[in-house]
Specification:
The complex is a heterodimer. Chain A is mostly helical. Chain A contains 14 helices and 4 strands. In chain A, strands 2-1-3-4 form a 4-stranded mixed beta sheet. In chain A, helix 7 runs antiparallel to helix 9 and helix 7 packs antiparallel against helix 11. Chain B is an alpha/beta fold. Chain B has 2 domains: 165 residues, P-loop containing nucleotide triphosphate hydrolases (Rossmann fold, 3-Layer(aba) Sandwich); 68 residues, no CATH class. Chain B has 10 helices and 9 strands. In chain B, helix 3 packs across helix 4. The radius of gyration of chain B is 18 Å and the shape is globular. The chains are: A mainly alpha, B alpha/beta. Chains A and B meet through helix 1, helix 8 and helix 14 of A and helix 2 and helix 3 of B.
Chain lengths: 391, 244
């Protein structure tokens, strides 16, 4: 058995025999991903819906009969009040209205009640819009005009995105982010144990004292980290698929809507899967190289956890920011060469069927180059006595 | 041919850890390197294994420079540290197979060699149990079996009894004495002086990076005075302190 495979065998065996690590890296993503992915949105949706279905009190002053009728139709309890603002402030009413000539003033605890206030304002605005449409129609008729003159045409938007981009839906950029997070998280547990953990237990010195090249030790540890990172990513994907399945069923059931809009874009063709896999491996190699360098430099397991934890944030933060900004970034191929950000942009492009040969070559070439650099950095750390024997 | 160390120097950033240390360890000899924590014992051993680089002097292990040919040297020496250095989640047999593969043993050869070590060290249950489930005595057996797996010609033992109970410690000291009879060159680093007094053919007193005495236990007692090696060592250190 080649020395690097021997090290890989030892690291992999140690991982799979560590029940806690297996649960954390391989089981929890399957169970928790559905909760994290859809839980908050589901909870907020349910709460919002429940709030809207309740009857709220609106304190009104100077409201005409037509407006009161619209408010009652929208399930508001209308309560005439000489000072609606005070009623809202003191909690006697949920919302307040003062109708003045040419203006309606609405009072709500917007800052204080956040999402709840927004939901109530939405409900109130619907009633006000309905009243406004009614008033406009009445005035037009009084002037001898047909109200339809106000709608000379209707606007209809057609989404011409490729089917892959539609399937990715509004969650599109979160998918590469999740994939990269799983790769880093999965490899992290192996690397910390295989570097700082070995230092702390005194096994690293014994391993380095064996007739084996440092490069073989590094390769063995790298392969084990890639394996666990890959399995952890698969577990995460499985969790996302469960989340997608659940959401799709919920959407189909409740709205009869297009299920694939929320199915997290996981209906990928084999070509896209290969592109994502190769990009993931290259990205993982780059990150594991840094983790190896940091891990062996750390004095203890805890120190490694803390420094590699910071690395995790450094990697994830730009990807998360990119999630909101990616739609506004131009199509410059040079962006694919930016470390960390490039693979995330490329994965997003693959999911949306936008990745061409140039993007592929730039992303893979640059990431391979950065991976090589980080492995050289890791090698230097492993051969630096100040790092290996730092305690 | 065992170990030759000539004017060995090592400087860390601000600290000069070794200030010109010279000694030899001949085949069939136990040389005890004695000194308090921080004296430079571990640094010396790590240089001999090729784990760290010296800043001056010359070192030969079995005729080879460990800095220039670390793998060639490591194939022929056994290195035991007091920190144990065993993988918790591997069994005793897996541990021996893991390290054995680095020495070029095939699977069949390893099987035969492990069977020999089982007979020689009475490994028994320790081969089947995971390290994390072993008693300290079992761990010590695997540790020593690992050091002898490839039949090393030179043994470097760095505080080897630090984590051992009294039974395991006794077994290890007896084993070291047997290996001397088999002609191995043994460098035994410790700050537990009674162990050295029992085992060593010659001793070296290492203090603040300098070897302040090299000779037999009897010569040390005669030179510095005192009923035991421990007394002699303390007197030697006091002498250096007064001179400074």
């Amino acid at each position: 058995m080649p020395p690097s495979w021997n090290v890989f065998w030892k690291e992999a065996l140690s991982f799979f025999r560590d029940r806690r690590a297996v649960i954390n890296q391989l089981l929890l993503p399957v169970l928790l991903m559905p909760v994290f992915a859809i839980g908050p949105a589901y909870l907020i949706g349910k709460l919002g819906q429940a709030e809207l279905e309740k009857t709220q009190v609106v304190a009104v002053k100077g409201a005409p009969g037509g407006l009161i009728a619209e408010l009652k139709k929208a399930r508001f309890q209308v309560k005439p009040d000489p000072d609606p603002e005070k009623a809202v402030r003191e909690g006697a009413a949920d919302l307040g209205l003062i109708v003045e000539p040419g203006r309606i003033r609405v009072f709500a605890k917007v800052s204080q009640e956040g999402l709840k206030a927004e939901a109530l304002m939405g409900k109130l605005n619907q009633a006000l819009e309905a009243y406004k449409a009614r008033v406009v129609a009445e005035r037009l008729r009084a002037a001898g005009l047909d109200p339809s003159v106000l709608t000379p045409f209707v606007v209809e938007t057609v989404d011409v995105s490729p089917p892959e981009a539609k399937k990715a839906g509004f969650m599109g950029f979160l998918i590469p982010m999740f994939l990269l997070m799983f790769i880093i998280g999965g490899s992290m547990s192996v690397i910390i144990d295989a570097t700082a953990g070995e230092k702390e237990r005194g096994t690293l010195e014994v391993l380095l004292a064996a007739p084996v090249r440092v490069w073989d030790i590094l390769m063995g540890k790298l392969l084990a980290a890639l394996l666990v990172g890959f399995l952890s990513t698969l577990a995460g994907i499985l969790g996302l698929m469960l989340a997608g399945l659940y959401t799709a069923r919920a959407v189909s059931f409740s709205e009869g809507g297009e299920a694939e809009a929320l199915s997290f874009g996981l209906q990928l063709d084999p070509r896209a899967l290969v592109l994502l896999f190769v990009t993931g491996v290259l990205f993982a190699t780059m990150v594991v190289g840094i983790e190896l360098a940091l891990g062996v430099y750390a004095r203890s397991y805890k120190e490694a956890q803390s420094s590699i934890g910071i690395l995790y944030m450094v990697v994830i933060l730009p990807i998360a920011l990119l999630g909101t900004a990616s739609a506004f970034i131009g199509e410059n191929p040079a962006y694919y060469a930016i470390p960390i950000v490039g693979p995330a942009l490329y994965m997003d492009a693959v999911l949306k069927a936008k990745a061409d040969l140039t993007a592929t070559l730039i992303t893979w070439g640059s990431t391979l180059f950065y991976a090589g650099l980080t492995l050289v950095l890791a090698y230097r750390s492993f051969t630096r006595e100040e790092a290996v024997f730092r305690n | 041919m065992g170990i030759e160390v000539q004017d060995l120097r090592k400087r860390y950033k601000r600290v000069e850890a070794l200030k010109g240390v010279s000694f030899t360890v001949r085949p069939g000899e136990v040389f005890a390197l004695l000194g308090p924590n921080g004296a430079g014992k571990t640094t010396t051993l790590r240089i001999l294994v090729g784990l760290i680089k010296r800043t001056g002097g010359a070192v030969r292990v079995l005729g080879e420079d460990p800095e220039a040919a670390p793998l060639a040297v490591r194939r022929r020496l056994g290195y035991v540290t007091g920190g144990m250095g065993l993988y918790d989640r591997l069994t005793g047999e897996e541990t021996l197979r893991f390290f054995g593969r680095f020495y070029g043993f095939s699977a069949a050869e390893l099987g035969e060699r492990i069977a020999e070590l089982d007979t020689e060290f009475a490994l028994g249950e320790a081969l089947r149990r995971r390290v994390e489930q072993m008693s300290s005595g079992m761990r010590q057996k695997i540790l020593v079996a690992r050091a002898f797996l490839h039949r090393p010609e030179v043994l470097l033992l760095d505080e080897p009894t630090a984590a051992l109970d009294v039974f395991a410690r006794r077994a290890l000291l007896d084993r070291v004495a047997e290996e001397r009879e088999r002609g191995r060159a043994i460098l035994y680093s410790t700050h537990v002086l009674p162990e050295a007094e029992e085992l060593a053919d010659r001793v070296g007193f290492l203090y603040e990076g300098r070897l302040i005495f090299v000779g037999t236990v009897e010569e040390a007692k005669a030179r510095f005075g005192g009923p035991t090696l421990e007394h002699a060592f303390i007197h030697a250190v006091e002498e250096v302190r007064h001179a400074a």
